[in-house]
């Protein structure tokens, strides 16, 4: 695997990760409105150039922290509330420079519970963790 660089629009939040093999297209209202595609890594494998200067937005069950650059507002990454060395955090793969979408598996998750996605994949859509039981 090779390391790839990523940054928000203004460059204030920069990090390096291994090139992702898969990204998640979540259609919850936050990810859909920001256009995020999420790549997951152990937190210790995400190397920020300096401590990220972000503001945190939380909603719903208030278990996820959505980090945004304080300067340009880009959605940069997500963490579980109160974790410092989490098993995984999500980084916005759209910030990765030179990432070839054709070389990365796309997984869709229906957290918006409407089945609507801007992306296209042949893989089945994963159900929301809040999806009602099937009949």
UniProtKB/TrEMBL annotation:
The keyword Nucleotide-binding does not apply. Residues 4-119 form the CENP-V/GFA domain. Keywords: Metal-binding, Zinc. The keyword Metal-binding applies. GO terms for molecular function: carbon-sulfur lyase activity; metal ion binding. It comes from the Bacteria. Pfam families: GFA (PF04828). SUPFAM superfamilies: Mss4-like (SSF51316). Belongs to the Gfa family. PANTHER family: CENP-V_GFA DOMAIN-CONTAINING PROTEIN, CENTROMERE PROTEIN V. This is CENP-V/GFA domain-containing protein.
């Amino acid at each position: 695997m090779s390391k790839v660089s990523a940054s928000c629009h203004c460059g204030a939040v920069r990090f390096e990760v291994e090139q992702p093999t898969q990204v998640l297209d979540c259609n919850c209202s936050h990810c859909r409105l920001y256009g995020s595609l999420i790549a997951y890594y152990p937190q210790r494998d995400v190397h920020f150039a300096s401590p990220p200067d972000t503001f945190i937005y939380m909603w719903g069950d208030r278990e996820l922290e959505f980090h945004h650059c304080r300067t340009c507002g880009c959605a940069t990454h997500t963490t579980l509330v109160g974790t410092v060395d989490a098993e995984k955090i999500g980084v916005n793969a759209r910030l990765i420079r030179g990432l070839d979408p054709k070389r990365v598996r796309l997984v869709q998750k229906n957290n918006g519970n409407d089945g609507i996605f801007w992306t296209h994949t042949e893989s089945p859509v994963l159900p929301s963790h809040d999806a009602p039981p099937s009949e």
